Amino acid sequence: MKRATLARCTAAAAASVVALGTLGAVPALAADPAPGFARTATYPVYLNVPAGVDPADETVAEISAASPDGKTVVYTDALGKRIGFLDVTDPGSPVGLGTVSLAELGHEDDQPTSVSIVGGHVLVVIDETGGAFTAPKGRLDVLRLSDRERVASIDLGGQPDSIAISPDGTYAAIAIENQRDEDIEVDGVEGGMPQAPGGFVQVVKLTPSKPSNWKARPVAFDTRAAQAILADAGLYGATDPEPEYVAFSSEGELAVTLQENNGIALIDVRTGRLTGAFSTGTVTADGFDTDDDKVISATDSLVDVPREPDSLGWVGANLVATANEGDLFGGTRGWSIFDVRTGEVVWDAGSSFEQLAVAHGVYNDGRADNKGPEPEGLAIAEFGGTTYAFVASERSNIVVVYDLTDPTSPEFVQTLFATNGPEGILPIPSRDLLVVSSEEDEASAGVRAAVNVYAFGSDVASRTSIVSDSVDGEAIGWLALSALSANPADPGTIFAASDNALKPSTIFTVDVTGAQARITDSLVVTHGGSPANLDVEGLFARPQGGYWLASEGAAGAANSLVRTDAAGAVVETVALPAEITAHIGKWGLEGVTATTDASGAEVVYVAVQRPLWSDPAGAAEPIDGDGVTRIGRYDVASGAWTWFGYQLEATSAAGDWLGLSEITAVDADTLAVIERDKLNGPRAAIKRVSTVEVGGVTGVTGLGAPGGLPVLEKTVAIDVLPELQSIDGWTQEKLEGLTIGGDGQVYAVTDNDGLNDATGETVFLRLGSAAERF
């Protein structure tokens, strides 16, 4: 059967698959098995910028390649118009080796889009278009790896995207995308197609070995024969193909994703001809969250949504896997495996990829209405005799690992946390390493683009510290754990709560008996019979039943102490004294705890994050002295409030401040509090648990007389920073939850801020015995 006829027969089949529920089944979320991958280092690439470049300037690490010995990694930095070099000889301590400016080699608008290494040469493809959609241009620069001198520059005749090298090192294939103008309307579609000029693929024969002799040979997509193949495949905008990603099979066959066209093309690089194409079809499946509303609820469906694949990789000689990022019309929030000989879908993730993001607390609800987790990067590689797929979520900042022993039924292995926007997935099997480069850089928030390194091995500890269970096939949705509390009825569980990054306000039950903490249940807080939307920053489960909640609020007067019954219904709201809230800005209540004596008298303590200010709305001075914030004591029986001072540490970092994030009772007279700075990554400095003694100390009522506030003496009990750094990731800013469980162990957790100005990783910490720590 001719390829064009085959494509025509299978396009409809590809479009109709995945109505089958089994294809989208949520993988079992058992404890991570060994062998697996463990993160060894996170290298922020701003540390590798040239002298004279402000480290605060945004920089990226988009696509990477490794030297033949696997000890040097080269990454593209499109924002910096350069490529960077890293020494990963020690996977636990990458060393920056500097950069090469591509703008200095060409033009100020030049941007590297991809990179490969062949022998002793670095091949970097460069977009020279500078925004001129109708006159795209680009080049391939060849640099010696040893001294980084350019030894050849080849005109590509269009705007390049990705590059791949054949297994035998004979050919380089480059996708020439010739990207469309997204602001132009075509047939009623903004950014629609066709928009001339169409794209194609350039093939460079890498022999003879002297790069100055290399020539680029185009594989045209606009010939009559090629156009017939694309049209017969039923591709959208077939006259304007936009190659996105190229990958060689082990036999040297080239597959090309045509993302906006929703298809895959096949090329014989030896003859330079397009040999076939097929549509990647559409998905109809249930179990998605498509509303940007801070509610994680997988009750929505995708109906006939085009996959629009981005990256791809071969699984053997006849199957290809694609990450279905989407663009114009689609994005199916997962990945698929196709038989390239028939065009049929042999497996599709359905909603399971998105559900994994939910289960790991990294579902970016702000993107729920726009491609969800947005799978973009994908790679296939063999480690330890097993073939794995690595699929990266651009918006959830994770790489999901699957076992492809049976490619018709991939098995979930583990989730790897990365920095923001993981795109370049670089397996280095010869060294048992996986390198992930992340393209998003939020310098203003201190969350930087980085190269993440992971090692494969049989002795791998649990890689995910907390994950949620699935109920009826749907993972329990959670985000931004801002508070912890012991469960007075069960020493094997604790409670956690999300802040206003998640709606409605929810209390979670967390099983801490295993190596991996597991969210097993959730309880919605209600007020007047309706779901409540509080900013829960503190949580305490009362032995008498029900909960105390500390709700921060956007302004001083909105800060309140809330009591619920065991079912989560609000039964009492306790306002803070007006003379206190008049001096609280947006940094208010951050924790709550309580004690009950033998007579049954209950006392509640709250922590105020930052000092009281003379004028919270404008230029302000701290009322109680520099860096002095407050701990409040509420006598439940009398309704009286009294206040104590807490001296925060000072910081020398510009833009930083210190504050309290949690409070928990060690005993009737001793309180433990979290004190932290607002720095993250390499700049993180203060993440501590300190204790203060309140027994025998008389607090003040209201503001108190000038100088009358008793400042409690504090003792540092636990320096948590080394614990946060020990996982070799991006050190998290918001250490926010702390409790002593019924088992006598100390637990802490970071708040992932709902992935807003954060990597999204939640770190659940086990800090040892309270008897030893306090």
UniProtKB/TrEMBL annotation:
Write the protein's name: Esterase-like activity of phytase family protein
Choice-of-anchor I domain: residues covered: 60-292, 328-414
Keywords per UniProt: Signal
Q: Which SUPFAM superfamilies match?
A: YVTN repeat-like/Quinoprotein amine dehydrogenase
Query: Is the keyword Signal assigned to this protein?
Result: yes
A Pfam match: choice_anch_I
The segment(s) forming the Phytase-like domain are 477-753
Quote the InterPro entries the UniProt record gives: Choice_anch_I, Mesenchyme-surface_protein, Phytase-like_dom, Quino_amine_DH_bsu, WD40/YVTN_repeat-like_dom_sf
Q: Which domain of life is it from?
A: Bacteria
What PANTHER family has UniProt attached to this entry?
Answer: MESENCHYME-SPECIFIC CELL SURFACE GLYCOPROTEIN
User: Which residues does UniProt assign to the signal peptide?
Assistant: 1-30
